[in-house]
Design a protein that fits this description.
mainly beta; four-stranded antiparallel beta sheet; 47% strand
Length: 400
């Protein structure tokens, strides 16, 4: 499939992969006559629930609207491709008399961005922390951190969630308490006491899924049955991370040939070659997300690709920076620089629908800092704009 040249153009691309940026641009153009809204998940009670904002497309500023209350710890959000429905975790361990969490769906009201409850179901595990939608739109994938399980929830055409059709909870020995690849002086140790699923995402073609387990230092590879929604272990079933690294989040390159992973304890960015036919990974590179010479503790948290897929951004907690990397023609990355987040403990970073503005959710500072992204260099510049949100944990955008 497509390869990205040193200048960032798509070379040797098949029509599907080459069309990705064009499709995104066309979709953005179609949204110009619609209002943009941002939805921010939080940890309650410090946060009020799902906070709602109207987005100023020219400046990236967020203007607060009434929040949606009554949901506990809506820590992860995702919006379907029709932008009619929002899905949210409730990161708890006591849903409806069980030891599990839950996932809820909401209808997004056109013109106002108001959220109307549709359904709530068991997440099939404790502490759900991540959601993703299958490309066919019929399944929602959820990672449950505390129980180490991943599950598949069917989605109806009206946004109604149904009970899980598949759940996997692979067992493995706990990972090392200290990251072998950690920077000097690091005391980054967290939850290497058993399985802790942190992410699950479908492959671009929907035939496979990738999940990470921070607690056992594994990236799991799954076969995905698009008819039934069933997950089954692939062959091989996992890729082992370096000892104590703590695989956290992943992102596919739109060319379908590369996958990038950020590790929490080691604070590394790992580049993999992805075999789309077999759903397997081959490590190409592992680099630090921290600047040369850094010593001390930091926890990498999030990874994002720029809309044109020429750059990668990684958030570092405690170091409180956003590292910027360029992507070479072979899929490997190179350091560009770093930008302070303007706050404490950036849990999530996200681009707005245009790709012009990047939002850093600084969890311990109780705010979101807004940056502009230079499309030529990949560098970030603080816009001077903040918005106050208690314990922000995720942000999703819709044009309705």
């Amino acid at each position: 499939m497509a390869a990205v040249s040193a200048m960032g153009s798509l070379a040797g691309a098949n029509p599907a992969s080459a069309a990705q940026p064009a499709k995104r641009a066309a979709a953005a153009a179609a949204q110009n006559d619609k209002a943009w809204f941002a939805f921010v998940g939080t940890y309650t009670p410090h946060g009020l629930g799902i906070h709602r904002f109207r987005v100023d497309r020219a400046t990236g500023k967020l203007d607060a609207l009434d929040p949606v209350q009554g949901i506990e710890n809506p820590s992860a959000l995702v919006i379907d491709k029709t932008q009619r429905f929002l899905f949210s975790t409730s990161e708890v361990k006591n849903y409806n008399g069980t030891t599990n969490g839950s996932v809820s769906s909401y209808a997004i009201e056109a013109g106002t961005g108001a959220l109307h409850p549709v359904s709530t179901v068991n997440s099939q595990g404790a502490g759900p922390v991540y959601l993703s939608l299958h490309p066919n739109g019929r399944y929602l994938l959820v990672a449950n951190y505390n129980s180490g399980s991943v599950a598949v929830l069917p989605v109806g055409e009206d946004g109604t969630l149904r009970d899980a059709v598949s759940m996997q909870a692979p067992q493995a020995p706990a990972g090392a308490g200290h990251a072998a690849e950690g920077v000097p002086g690091s005391f980054a140790i967290s939850d290497h006491d058993g399985p802790h699923a942190h992410t699950i995402v479908p492959s671009p073609d929907g035939r496979f899924a990738i999940s990470t387990d921070l607690g056992v230092d594994r990236t799991y590879l799954w076969k995905f049955d698009e008819t039934s929604g069933a997950l089954a272990p692939n062959e091989p079933a996992f890729v082992a991370a370096s000892a104590g690294a703590g695989p956290r989040h992943v992102a596919f390159h739109p060319n379908g040939r590369w996958l990038y992973e950020v590790t929490e304890e080691a604070s590394t960015l790992v580049a993999y070659g992805y075999d789309a036919q077999h759903g397997t990974l081959t490590q190409m590179q592992s680099v630090s997300t921290l600047p040369p010479g850094y010593q001390g503790t930091s926890f990498a948290s999030e990874i994002m690709l720029s809309h044109d897929a020429r750059f990668i951004y990684v958030a570092n907690r405690l170091h409180d920076t956003i590292a910027q990397f360029g992507i070479g023609a072979n899929g490997q990355v190179h350091w560009i620089g770093e930008t302070p987040t303007g706050g404490d403990y950036p849990r999530v970073i996200r681009f707005d629908p245009s790709g012009r503005f990047l939002y850093s959710l600084n969890q311990r500072s109780d705010h979101i800092a807004i940056f502009s992204a230079d499309k030529a260099s990949g560098k970030l510049r603080f816009t001077g704009n903040y918005v106050a949100v208690g314990s922000p944990s995720d942000i999703a955008f819709a044009a309705v």
